[in-house]
Amino acid sequence: MAHGVYEFSSKTLDGKPLNLADFEGKVLLIVNTASKCGFTPQYEGLQALHAELGQKGLVIIGFPCNQFGGQEPGTEEVIASFCQKNYGVDFLMAEKVDVKGDQAHPLFKYLTSEAKGILGTEAIKWNFTKFLVRKNGEVYDRYAPTTKPADLKADIAQLMAE
């Protein structure tokens, strides 16, 4: 029986079903993203990780969110176009969701309960908070928005070797 993040589903930016159970046996990097944020250039680093490790079992899923400074105001189409045009993103992009508060997507409620932030807080504080998930669906760790995607390579390699 699937457990951990594999219990959750969403939709892709273009409205197709996105079932996390489809990625069982792969390492997941789940990120709440935004197109008009100081950390937006991290799309480049995320795409580089995807290009280097995607064929080896890493799945990156970006979840656009407009809860931090209104930095993701666009529609799904605008977001998809921006990511592709500016950063060549071809890793998975999910539908726009809330990642904190009462309306938070159930996946993010789960992620934040499993991997606490600074001083044990659950709430996501800003865009580009990253969650790394083991091949069995368990949350491995949470990384601050300031953590560059390239800085996750050692942890990703460790989880891929498990």
Tell me about this structure.
- InterPro entries: Glutathione_peroxidase, GPX_AS, GPX_CS, Thioredoxin-like_sf.
- The protein has 162 residues and is α/β, with parallel strands linked by helices.
- The protein has 4 helices and 7 strands; from the N terminus they run E-E-E-H-E-H-E-H-E-E-H.
- The chain has a domain at 26-96 and 126-161: Glutaredoxin, CATH 3.40.30.10.
- Strands 5-4-3-6-7 form a 5-stranded mixed sheet, sandwiched between helices. A two-stranded antiparallel ribbon has the order 1-2.
- Helix 2 (76-87) links the parallel strand 4 and strand 5 (92-93).
- It starts with 8 loop residues before the first strand and ends with a helix.
Notable characteristics:
162 residues; single chain; five-stranded mixed β-sheet; 4 helices; globular; Glutaredoxin; alpha/beta; two-stranded antiparallel ribbon
The best one-word shape is: globular
Terminal Cα span: 20 Å
* Annotated CATH topology of the domain at 26-96 and 126-161: Glutaredoxin
Cα Rg: 14 Å
Backbone structural class: alpha/beta
What is the CATH H-level superfamily of the domain at 26-96 and 126-161? Glutaredoxin
Q: In CATH's first tier, which class of the domain at 26-96 and 126-161 applies? A: Alpha Beta
DSSP strand tally:
7
Strand content: 15-25%
Largest sheet: 5 strands, mixed
| Strand order, largest beta sheet | 5-4-3-6-7
| Whole-number mean pLDDT | 95
Q: Any idea what the CATH architecture of the domain at 26-96 and 126-161 is?
A: 3-Layer(aba) Sandwich
Unreliable parts? none
State the order of secondary-structure elements, H for helix, E for strand: EEEHEHEHEEH
Number of helices: 4
